[in-house]
Amino acid sequence: MIKAVFFDLYQTLVGYTPPREEWESKMLDSLGIKAPPSAFTRAFTTADEYFYTENAKRPLSRRTKEEVTEVYFKHQSIVLREGGIQPEPDLVRQMLLRWRDTKLKQTLFDDVIPAMTELKRRELKLGVISNVDRDIKPLLDELDLTPFLSIVVTSQETGFTKPHPEIFLEALRQADLPADEVIFVGDQYQIDVLGASAVGMRAVLLDRGGFSEAPPECVRVKNLYQLNALVDQEAVRWK
Predict the structure, then answer these.
(1) Could you read off the pLDDT of 43-99 as tens digits, one per residue?
(2) Is the backbone peptide bond immediately before 18 cis, with ω within 30 degrees of 0?
(3) 108 and 12 Cβ atoms separated by less than 8 Å
(4) How far apart are the C-alpha atoms of 138 and 61, rounded to whole Å?
(5) Domains of the chain by range and CATH?
(6) Is the pLDDT of residue 101 over 70?
(7) CB atoms within 10 A of CB 21
(8) Which residues cross the membrane (predicted)?
(9) Burial status of residue 8 (CB atoms within 10 A of its CB: 0-12, 13-18, 19 or more)
(10) Nearest one of 157, 108, 133 to 9, comparing CA atoms
(11) What is the pTM of this model?
């Protein structure tokens, strides 16, 4: 029986307004390059997979400034290439300078509060497990998520990043629940799904854009509204 649902934070609960693809298109336009925002929706998904995998290998907070710059350079290069634009080094550098000076507003996806409200109504424990190197409680307060959450576990607090088992195990200890009674939802297959599955959690991939190349046996949802049905489906073949 499912007794808790834990979530990844960024690109699962929290996104950006305006969306990053709109900023990418706008910045390129300022450089005389025309590309619609739609060209970058899948591009950011692919680039984020690279970014989160790199961060899991060794957190950016523990790398040199030069190493961090290299990761962001590669991330932006992937965005451009996947968006159909040749990632010339000078162009990538100009884009990174523009991104550095851009303040993105962090906002909840539209399905977050309704989905959490229903899950909470059903007396499920809710929590967040996130690879962040700072205190996210002020952000959770600002976004009105705090009242929904029983636990918040971060890589800053534990010293471990997903997919390391310890960050998931710490969440289970705080919730005082066995792994097979917990669903974990995240947008990254390698980091979220495989990490949660490795400790025995019921892992769910949130594939909002339908772009994930995760294997077909991976349990996935397109939005958070679908979680309630999963909680009820005892026959789900969890991987």
Answers:
(1) 999 999 999 999 988 888 889 999 999 999 999 999 999 999 999 999 999 999 999
(2) yes
(3) no
(4) 20
(5) 4-14+106-232 (3.40.50.1000), 19-104 (1.10.150)
(6) yes
(7) 21
(8) none
(9) buried
(10) 108
(11) 0.90
